[in-house]
From TrEMBL:
Protein name (Swiss-Prot/TrEMBL): histidine kinase
Keyword Cell inner membrane in annotation: no
Naturally occurring in which organism (per UniProt): Micromonospora auratinigra
Residues making up the signal peptide according to the UniProt record: none
Chemical reaction(s) catalysed: ATP + protein L-histidine = ADP + protein N-phospho-L-histidine
InterPro entries: HATPase_C_sf, HATPase_dom, His_kinase_dom, HisK_dim/P_dom, HisK_dim/P_sf, Sensor_HK_Regulatory, Sig_transdc_His_kin-like_C
GO-annotated cellular components: plasma membrane
Calcium keyword on record: no
């Protein structure tokens, strides 16, 4: 604590005989009152002074008592300081009060060095709302204290008794309040215990219901797994059974349309062309069903390698250029920045990107379909953006459901299986597939792939 002491103390007393103890106590209370301490603090300071004075009188024959005021510069508060300079040196330069409770009555009590002397010092902070102790005010207090006549030991004893009675009344009042609080607490405890017992019973009943619900959920989950496995087996079996006849139909239709065969009439050629196109669409559906069945059954295992995105994008640019047959639609494949490698499965990643690009070209009448790659958070963001019809916000998740197609787009063709299969593959690769789209503003499908440390 950094303090600035005044030039002259407020009051000085000599402690030499037993009667001086009462005088020190009385004057200490007067000084505490003068500087603005509250009533309880006045009593505490007076009590602590009388105890320390009695110890010093019996131990070292008395002391010179000095009352002073310091300014705590850091806290901006005044402090009442009392120094007791022993008449003889303290044993071992130390002081321990006989009553251990004395130190709790003041903010500070201990032995300090004051120049060449050793003094017992105690202090108590003055309340912040007390009257400012300016130099003028301190001079007035010195004059008042010097002019006041000290009372007798009987007067101080009467005052001390009055303070003791007041303290006893306060203790009795606090005891009565404590009894009321204890009674209320007991009543509250009884209510809490009743509520606790009720909640315990309800919780046990709820737990029994939860256990039954979990058992039902486990049963439903087993049924769902069995149904999913049956569906996957059905799709795989049906797809395998359909591929052979569909492939045969396509082959026969090509033979019929071959110029080396007997010539067909125009109507026959048209009918054969319709058969071949329908069979091709059916074969595409069968292949997508097979792929979806493999993904659902978990039989697709990624072949993890370092994939060069620049080479992959170049391959996609070449293979998909032939699909960009609409004169008003441009396929743009941006070159990724170097180096552009990601740990993934090149075949599966190419299949997903090819699917997204093919969808973009299919549903875009004019503008462009753009593929780009950007680094993001240590990984890669691969996006396919088109200027097609767009998808309403409420359908963003539905288009990833199997066999679902946005209303009004069925005339373009498709099975509704490509996007669900693409999302499953991206999940297998440890990434996510997201959609941002608005009707009339096109769509952006974004694949987020983690980096090597992810």
């Amino acid at each position: 604590m950094t303090t600035v002491p005044p030039s002259e103390p407020l009051l000085q007393l000599a402690l030499r005989v037993e009667q001086d103890i009462f005088l020190v106590r009385q004057r200490g209370r007067e000084v505490a009152t003068a500087v603005g301490l509250e009533h309880q603090d006045q009593v505490r300071v007076a009590t602590a002074l009388s105890e320390v004075a009695r110890d010093l009188l019996r131990g070292v024959g008395g002391a010179d008592v000095t009352f002073d005021v310091d300014l705590d510069v850091v806290a901006g508060r005044y402090v009442l300081r009392v120094d007791l300079s022993p008449a003889r040196p303290l044993p071992d330069g130390r002081y321990e009060p006989e009553s251990g409770a004395v130190a709790r009555l003041v903010d500070m009590l201990g032995v300090v060095r004051d120049g060449d002397d050793t003094v017992v010092r105690m202090s108590r902070r003055v309340p912040a709302n007390a009257r400012a102790l300016t130099p003028k005010r301190l001079a007035e207090l010195r004059a008042e204290l010097a002019g006041s006549a000290p009372g007798t030991a009987l007067d101080e004893l009467a005052t001390q008794n009055a303070q003791l009675i007041a303290a006893l009344d306060e203790v009795r009042s606090q005891r009565d309040e404590l009894e009321v609080l204890n009674s209320e607490l007991q009543e509250t405890n009884r209510g809490v215990m009743a509520l606790y017992n009720q909640l315990t019973e309800e919780l046990e009943e709820t737990n029994r219901g939860v256990v039954a619900l979990y058992a039902e959920l486990d049963e439903k989950s087993a049924q769902l797994r069995a149904a999913s496995e049956s569906k996957s087996r059905f799709l795989a079996n049906v797809s395998h059974e359909l591929r052979a006849p569909v492939t045969a139909i396509i082959g026969l239709s090509r033979l019929l349309a071959d110029t080396a065969s007997d010539p067909l009439t125009a109507e026959q050629a048209r009918q054969v062309g319709l058969v071949r196109d329908s069979a091709s669409d059916l074969l595409a559906l069968v292949n997508e069903l097979l792929d979806l069945a493999k993904a659902e059954s978990g039989r697709i295992e990624p072949n993890w390698t370092e994939v060069d995105l620049r080479a992959l994008f170049g391959q996609l640019r070449g293979t998909l250029r032939a699909l960009a047959t609409k004169p008003d639609v441009e396929l743009v494949v941006e070159e990724p920045e170097f180096p552009a490698t990601v740990r993934s499965d090149e075949v599966l990643l190419a299949q997903v990107l090819r699917n997204l690009l093919h969808n973009g070209l299919k549903f875009t009448e004019r503008g462009e379909v753009r593929l780009r790659a950007e680094r993001r958070d240590g990984g890669w963001s691969l996006s396919v953006t088109d200027t097609g019809v767009g998808v309403p916000a409420e359908l963003h998740e539905r288009i990833f459901e199997e066999f679902y197609q946005v209303p009004g787009t069925t005339r373009v063709g498709g099975t509704g299986l490509g996007l669900p299969y693409a999302r499953r593959l991206v999940t297998l690769l440890g990434g996510t597939l997201e959609l941002a789209s608005e009707p009339g503003r096109g769509s952006t499908f974004t694949i987020l792939l983690p980096g090597e440390g992810a």
